[in-house]
Amino acid sequence: MKNTRFTFGGSSHRQREFERLYDQYSGRIYGFALQLSGGDTYLSEEILQITFLRLWEHFDELRDHTKALNYMFQTARNTFLNYCEHETVRFIYTDYILQRRQEADSYDEQQQDARFLEEYLREIVAKMPPMRRKVFVMSRYRHMSNREIAKELNISEKTVEVHITLALKELRERMND
Predict the structure, then answer these.
(1) Residue 156 belongs to domain with CATH number
(2) Domain co-membership, 22 together with 76
(3) 0.85 exceeded by pTM
(4) CA-based diameter of the chain, in Å?
(5) How many angstroms separate the CA atoms of 61 and 59, rounded?
(6) How far is CA 67 from CA 10, 16, 54, in A?
(7) Are residues 82 and 137 in the same domain?
(8) For the chain, what is the mean pLDDT?
(9) Which helix (H) or strand (E) holds 127?
(10) Structure confidence by residue, pLDDT tens digits, 73-91
């Protein structure tokens, strides 16, 4: 523990009394903070500093040494609990952000896979015979019924079905390669 001296403005009597309390109790408060924090010296020093800062702020209300000592232990405990609460919130937030990032990365990968697949499908369709390609595009991309396709191309519905069946078969075969 560092031997920290406080230099606050105020009456010299008040400051001497405060320094006396610091000299007398800082070791006990530090030890208490060290125990609370599981041996974390940095955190214990922070708790000690905050405790004595709060003591200075309320010094005029705590003239009795017993009240001051109780106040210091309570302040040290509350400071530690506030630190724990803050760390818990920080942990939950960090976990949330990491989870969202993983979901976003997964979503990006899925989008990339979907774009790749769509591009690959378009390449396969582009290599189909012209009539089969036209029927397939009208059916799958323009969402036209077999009847509408047959009417527009002036072919039978059965011919439309045959072209769609052959297009799907070709797609399945090429996808399995």
Answers:
(1) 1.10.10.10
(2) yes
(3) no
(4) 108
(5) 5
(6) 21, 18, 13
(7) no
(8) 85
(9) none
(10) 999 999 999 888 888 888 8
